[in-house]
């Protein structure tokens, strides 16, 4: 069984025309998993519904606590990309579980999104990687503490 935690981020953003901005909405993960032909072997729990730039140290500790308390030894976390590396660093205190964080550069609700690919890629990664904390984005896996987001290039790179 794989535990999936959702925390919000761009992957779950919704466009609100009334105020012409994106806001984090309910997770689309329950729809994205079947679209990726993933139908069983997981449980989903929403932890947060925040843009990662709004996440606090207390929020990261809550994610760590949820992962610590989880009976599953394989955990996938959807997360905003801006501070994903920060949360991965906090989670790296857990050495006996395989934890993979993923997200999207464009909301899942948009036609040209990387969300579906990243979810499928992270699903594979969490099953194949040894214990540790990783970020799986756009076809690459990075170890926690050795990754940063390149804002200009809109991709993750080894640091």
From TrEMBL:
The keyword Iron-sulfur does not apply. Pfam families: Asparaginase. The keyword Hydrolase applies. Residues 2-150 form the L-asparaginase N-terminal domain. One of its GO terms (molecular function) is asparaginase activity. InterPro entries: Asp/glu_Ase-like_sf (IPR036152), Asparaginase/glutaminase-like (IPR006034), L-asparaginase_N (IPR027474), L-asparaginase_N_sf (IPR037152). Keywords: Hydrolase. Its EC number is 3.5.1.1. It comes from the Bacteria. This is Asparaginase domain-containing protein.
């Amino acid at each position: 069984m794989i535990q999936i935690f959702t925390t919000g981020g761009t992957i779950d953003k919704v466009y609100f025309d009334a105020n012409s901005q994106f806001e984090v909405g309910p997770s689309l993960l329950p729809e994205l998993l079947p679209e990726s032909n993933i139908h069983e072997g997981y449980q989903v729990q929403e932890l947060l519904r925040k843009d990662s730039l709004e996440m606090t140290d207390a929020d990261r500790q809550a994610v760590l606590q949820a992962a610590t308390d989880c009976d599953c030894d394989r955990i996938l976390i959807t997360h905003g990309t801006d501070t994903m590396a920060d949360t991965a660093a906090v989670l790296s205190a857990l050495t006996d579980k395989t934890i993979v964080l993923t997200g999207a550069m464009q909301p899942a609700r948009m036609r040209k999104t990387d969300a579906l690919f990243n979810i499928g890629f992270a699903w594979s990664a969490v099953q194949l990687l040894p214990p540790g904390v990783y970020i799986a984005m756009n076809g690459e896996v990075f170890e926690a503490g050795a990754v940063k987001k390149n804002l200009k290039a809109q991709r993750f790179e080894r640091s």
